[in-house]
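Teaching note: in complex prediction, the entire set of molecules is handled at once rather than each chain in isolation. The prompt given to students was simply: 'Predict the structure of this complex.' The entities are:
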Amino acid sequence: MSEIAVKIEDVSKKFRLYHERNQSIKSAIMRGRRSVHEDFWALKDVGFEVPVGSTFGLIGSNGSGKSTLLKCLAKIYYPETGSITYNGKIAALLEVGSGFHPELSGRENIFLNGSILGMSKKEITGKFDEIVDFSGVEQFIDQPVKNYSSGMYVRLGFSVAINVNPDILVVDEVLAVGDTEFQAKCAQKFVDFKNEGRTVILVSHSMESVREMCDSAAWLSHGELIKVGPADETIDAYLRSLPGASAA
Amino acid sequence: MRYLKEVLESRELLANLTLREIRGQYKRTIFGQLWSLVNPLASMLVYTLVFALIIRVQPEAGDPSGLDIFAVWLLCGLLPWTFFSNVVQQGMGSILSNVGLVQKVYFARIVLPLSKVGSVGYNWLFEMGVLVVVLVICGAFVWPWLPLVVVTMVLLAIFAAGLALMLAVANVHFRDTQYFVSIIMQIWMYLTPIIYPISLVATQSDKYGGLFGTTVTILDVYRINPLERFVAVFRQLLYDNRWPDPQDFLLCAIWALAAFTVGLWIFRRSERGLAEAL
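The expected output is the structure of the full assembly:
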């Protein structure tokens, strides 16, 4: 049994569905209550383990709780019950270019974004050339990012995030950024990650990319864990469950 | 303690966010940083016109500095107030205006309100620097008091940060907070002896005597206002050029620590739920 990078134990996450929500003091007092709501369990007792050095896919239809689980992993949401234990430094990539300031230059934004993602100034300075090189925006690095094309913007954001160098990387479907060439670079970066013994947890709707990149996968449906195991088997099971199951 | 350690570890992020605010603020303006002087200058002109020339408010001359210029006397109180009011109002909105960040990235959320203290404080430092130059030109011997001025500035920043932390959380749950607070701030300013000397209040208070048959006077109640103490200390140091009243100074420190402790406690308790509540 190999080492465990992330251990998810009986995680449940509840949201409130508001029928009436009083976000102003007046209405809260007039109605005599803050809200009328019913509980909605977005995750119900989900538990699995992700081994160190594996690439792990999370699959499932829309609204199955994948993103909620991802946000719990990223410590943005806190589960009601259960626990998540990490073995190493974690970085989550739910959005690229978080906190970019449009008026600041690419250079300034690299430092800003890097520190938001938890890098120290020394680390960023050390990786600066690599980040710029990877993003392919060298020529415009001292221009304000508001003048960037959307592709350049996303590429720069992605380059910073991928260079955080965490032990565990949690990625939402942001892989589909940039042109074919950039995507190939990203795929290569993930392979490097794996070779360095780092763990990647990935959420995707593209079964092809999950099949290609992941060793194992977990399938969520309506907040419950249906199946966890080798990627191919899980994906096949998921695809079979879909109405009109045929193509991937 | 673990929380404090985490906050301490985020100091680089805090510095970077503060820089983002400062650098972004006056980008693409012709006058740049000078704009931060225009606001206090405009209020100074208006208040001087109305209160010194029309209503004829006459604060006592600085003792022992001998200064007797209403505009300068006003600025010694107005600049700290503007800083305080801006920190509270901007810090209060800092979580709401960074929804994207809070919902997508994990970091110690406390850096958002605190970065506002930094960026507003940076402008304030600039304004106070100009004020010191003006004071020196007017003949005040202000140099020996500068270290204490800086200490008082830090205390006021801590006090403002504490309030901003509490209100930032409240504002996420009740969006009324921001509108409510902007009104409170207007009232609060007039309840603080910034544009009129406290001697006017003292005179009225003496005339009225004890409230409801007790020995508590209007002045005593009036002086509960923490900003009154801060303004008093700033004027004693900058305008009068003398040691601040020890009681005033001590109360400033106590208010600052109390507000910050409560603010930190509230913020820490609600920090986890912020991403969901937004």
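Point out the following to students. Chain A has a mean pLDDT of 84. Chain A touches chain B at residues 15, 23-26, 28, 71, 74-78, 92, 94-95, 98-99, 101, 103-104, 108, 111-112, 115-118, 120-121, 144 (CB under 8 Å).
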